[in-house]
Amino acid sequence: MMPWVLVAGDVTPLGGMDAANHALARHLAQCGTELHLVTHRVSADLQALPSVVTHNVWRPMGRHALGNPFLARSGRRVWQRLRARGAHAVVNGGNCRVPAVNWVHYLHAAHAPVVASTREGGIAFGHRRWLKTWLVHHQDMAAERRALQDARLVICNSRRTARDVSDRVGVDPERVRVVYYGTDASRFGQVSEGERELARRVLGLGQTRPLVGFVGALGDRRKGFDTVFAAWARLCRRSGWDADLVVIGRGAELDQWRARAQANGLARRMAFLGFRRDVPALLAGLDAMVHPARYEPYGLSVHEALCRGIPALVSASAGVAERYPRELSDLLIQNPEDVEELVERLMDWRVNAAHYQVRVARLASMLRSRSWDAMSRDIVTLVEQVELAA
Predict the structure, then answer these.
(1) What are the residue ranges spanned by the domains of the chain?
(2) Which CATH architecture is the domain 193-368 placed in?
(3) What is the pLDDT of residues 304-325, one digit of tens each?
(4) Which H helix or E strand runs over 72?
């Protein structure tokens, strides 16, 4: 059996691209494949598997930009050592430049990050942060372009990402394939009444008021929390609005948003939980999710909420929106910058909550039917096909 090499920043089950990488790695290892993980961080369950060889890569001060050169160098060195044995290689985006298969979870060329100024840090601090973000973004784009143009095959997590890879990086569409993410149905199953009651107690926000969740990093404005905040402020000025907002995620702007909520009299209507490892359990306490992302190549947090049977309002441009049937199109946000649109869609959800609950249940069943192993088998088939044709 030929060995495999996976080059990825993190290989853990904690969400997003990390969870997808973890699922592929676990599938390969459980099949007995000799798997070489070139990564900054890997979960203990993978390291415990006998067929996994971990190549730990230094990430100075935990900084993505500082760790990138070490990851690229280590990935290429491991691949070169193993290719004489016919090794299959899968690389994430610009992490490493090898003529193998590239699995794109996020395309830097598709979105320029927006960094808000911070009064607390002053103009100089805000300018330094903006300059650093700009430099890192352009370095990431350059590495990404080189890696994708060298790849024999590019696997994308949505049709939206596939279009971006072709339109923005110039990759021939004939070299691009779409493989949707899978699901762990044991963790993201339909919510039972007992799970809901427990989640409500853990959240400590009462048992009666509806809860809307936002799950995402607060390091920049990509996930659209600024739009959510503005919409929530307007909704809370309406006497009939009875829902509260639960915010799960951390980032450089977390303290700023907490302070703004306090200053605007919204502290009792918004709960900022920071980073949580128990997101699957917390989702059980929500009545809806809101995710007006400006750029979302897929949107695994939305996918997972849907799997739990929770209606999710998401940007129509997000990759996960491709999975929505026409009957749920009113949950798709056409303009993530438009605060009034989000207000109206949230109001519509609140009035028709029971209607959406029933219709989302059908989509949830469909999404849960595709496992992470099914996704992994699709990727293995594509990788073996492209290597055979080389």
Answers:
(1) 4-182+371-389, 193-368
(2) 3-Layer(aba) Sandwich (3.40)
(3) 999 999 999 999 999 999 999 9
(4) helix 64-82
